[in-house]
Structures are given as structure tokens and as C-alpha cells.
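Field log, afternoon session.

UNIT: design team B
ACTIVITY: writing a sequence onto a fixed backbone
BACKBONE:
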């Protein structure tokens, strides 16, 4: 059985999303950029594509982390640029992901707006802004927006968080 899988996540700033998934064990790669889907979601939206090892980190954990590290219940005015979505690369994933979302809904007071969408195309970010957090951890943006998301990982998902992330953010 194949252990390396690919999935896309969109929701907030791709610098934040990239940093969150780069901090996890079992995530082999994170590609930052813009994803477009089909039908009414053909406009590009900030997102990442990750490759992960299912024997190290389960899909349900990745989805839960995604939901907790962006505004997955908020229909704000920037949703075209920051679409709350999970992008699938094959039709068979849709059912299992929708079941996971249904199960995780009980952890939220407000209805999740995260959509499960088919992946259509990807446009990578320019090199100058990839690995943003790794290159700029002391910048105000990173301290204000990314560090709180990484602290969620440390507090709720420490068994899946890379040791260097934990040591970087804990006294």
C-alpha cells in the first residue's frame, strides 16, 4: 500500500500554511503557491501542496491541524484569495475527507466552511517568498501571525511537531 500521499490545503496566507505544515514530522514536502479548482472555484487562491507519509502522520490529523490554524468557520470578504479548502488529487479521497470533516465539526461551535475541492492547477510562489518563516522568523509578521499557529501545534499536536520547532518556540 502506498504510504506517500499528496493533498492541498488553502485557507489563509500561504506563508502561514507553509510554516505550519513544514513544522510537522511525516510531511516530506510543502509547496507554496496558488491553487485553482473547477466550476465556481477556478480563480487561484493561496494554498500549499504537501506530500506526507501516512505511516507517520494520518490525514485526519493533518485536516484537524488545517482547520485549527486558519479561520475555517469564517466567511470573510477575502475568501476568494484565501479559500478555505482541501484539494484532492483523486475522486476517492473526497468521501473519506468529507467524513473526517463531519467528525471534526463537533470540535467547533460554528459551522465549518472548508470545502473539499478537486485539484485543477497549481502556480508556485516565486522563490523569494518561499520558506518565508524559515528565512524570517524574527519579522513582525512571523511573530504576530505564524508563531501563534505553531504554538497550537506544540500545545495540541506535540507528538507530530518537529523538535526544532518546539525548542525554537518554548523557553
Amino acid at each position: 500500500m502506498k504510504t506517500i500521499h499528496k493533498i492541498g490545503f488553502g485557507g489563509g496566507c500561504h506563508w502561514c500554511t507553509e510554516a505550519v505544515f513544514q513544522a510537522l514530522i511525516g510531511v516530506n514536502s510543502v509547496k507554496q503557491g496558488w491553487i485553482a479548482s473547477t466550476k465556481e472555484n477556478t480563480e487561484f487562491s493561496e494554498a500549499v501542496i504537501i506530500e506526507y507519509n501516512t505511516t507517520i502522520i494520518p490525514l485526519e490529523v493533518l485536516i484537524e491541524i488545517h482547520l485549527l490554524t486558519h479561520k475555517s468557520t469564517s466567511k470573510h470578504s477575502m475568501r476568494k484569495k484565501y479559500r478555505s479548502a482541501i484539494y484532492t488529487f483523486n475522486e476517492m479521497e473526497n468521501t473519506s475527507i468529507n467524513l473526517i470533516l463531519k467528525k471534526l465539526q463537533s470540535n467547533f461551535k460554528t459551522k465549518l466552511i472548508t470545502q473539499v475541492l478537486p485539484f485543477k492547477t497549481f502556480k508556485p510562489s516565486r522563490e523569494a517568498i518561499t520558506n518565508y518563516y524559515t528565512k524570517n522568523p524574527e519579522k513582525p509578521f512571523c511573530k504576530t501571525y505564524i508563531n501563534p499557529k505553531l504554538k497550537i501545534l506544540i500545545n495540541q499536536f506535540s507528538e507530530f511537531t518537529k523538535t526544532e520547532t518546539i525548542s525554537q518556540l518554548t523557553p
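LOG NOTE: The longest strand covers residues 27-36.
NEXT ACTIVITY: expression trials, pending approval
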